[in-house]
Design a protein that fits this description.
One of its GO terms (cellular component) is ribosome. By secondary structure, the protein is α+β, with helices and mostly antiparallel strands. It folds into two domains: about 20-105 and about 240-250, Gcn5-related N-acetyltransferase (GNAT) (Aminopeptidase, 3-Layer(aba) Sandwich); about 105-240, Aminopeptidase, CATH 3.40.630. The protein is built from six helices and 13 strands. Strands 6-13-7-12-11-10-9-8 form an eight-stranded mixed sheet, with helices on both faces. Strands 3-4-5 form a three-stranded antiparallel sheet. The chain has a two-stranded antiparallel sheet with strand order 1-2.
């Protein structure tokens, strides 16, 4: 697929600091992460892999899966379970029941994108295990995407607290070679419109670039406000994607209708 913003193909080379970084790995960010930086958070059967359930729902098969690969993924997840294929272009067999489908875009940032500063009176702090309950509470309200009890183990997260309450956060998720995905960008309703999300994304971007990697992210195609924010921060659309999930065959009727 050609980049609708720049005309680059998915296998192109892009500059990150003094080195060139292949964007090909972004065609399979879940699989590349599970085979690499996040291997310690993976479970596997054959050539398929998925994150531990408390970390993320994402699963991966090969870019050109065979019927036996789908059988391996079904065995890995269990009957009637969610196979969250994220942005993978593959389609499972016909007996895998669709659960959700959402159009989105994948965006990448120039490493020279604006770093910016933190808004006045807002102190950005690094979050840790002691903050997980508050992170779950905030993402439960803002719903930026799946966030579970061990999602914070995917990378570093930052937040802003006011009167002890976590009102904004952002952090790192997928880690294909040479790249880090910025995710969980959340601002509580009472704290919106003050630039907190922008400050937190910039904090994450600086952290990624300082590590010698390049930031990328995903966003729903219908979320024009978020896309405009990310474009102001130096991101551009690399490709259009479809987020989709399916139920593995088997299981009880109750399991098949679980959200």
């Amino acid at each position: 697929m050609t980049d609708t913003a720049s005309g680059r193909g998915p296998g192109s080379m892009v500059s990150s600091g003094d080195a060139d970084v292949s964007s090909t790995v972004l065609d399979d960010p879940v699989g590349e992460s599970l085979r690499g930086h996040h291997a310690h958070l993976a479970r596997r059967v054959g050539g398929t892999a998925a994150y531990l359930p408390e970390v993320a729902t994402f699963a991966a098969v090969l870019l050109e899966p065979t019927p036996s690969d789908w059988a391996d993924l079904a065995a890995l997840l269990g009957p009637g379970e969610l196979a969250d294929l994220f942005s993978a272009s593959v389609e499972p067999p016909a007996d895998w029941a669709p659960v959700f489908s959402l159009e989105g875009v994948q965006m990448v940032a120039d490493p020279r994108a604006p770093a910016g500063g933190v808004p006045v009176a807002a102190d950005v702090v690094e979050l840790g295990p002691a903050d997980v309950a508050d992170m779950l509470a905030l993402t439960g309200v803002t719903r930026p995407g799946p966030f579970w009890s061990r999602t914070d183990e995917l990378g570093t997260y930052w937040g802003v607290r006011e009167n002890g309450v976590l009102v904004a956060m952002a952090g790192e998720r997928l880690r294909p070679p040479g790249w880090t995905e910025i995710s969980a960008v959340s601002t509580a309703p009472q704290a919106r419109g003050r630039g907190l999300a922008s400050a937190l994304v910039r904090t994450a971007m600086r952290h990624v670039v300082d590590r010698g990697e390049r930031p990328f992210l995903h966003v729903a195609a219908e979320n024009s406000g978020a896309i405009a924010l990310y474009e102001r921060l130096g991101f551009e659309v690399r490709r259009r994607v479809r987020f989709h999930g399916h139920r593995t065959p088997g299981g009880t009727p109750e399991a098949l209708v679980r959200p």
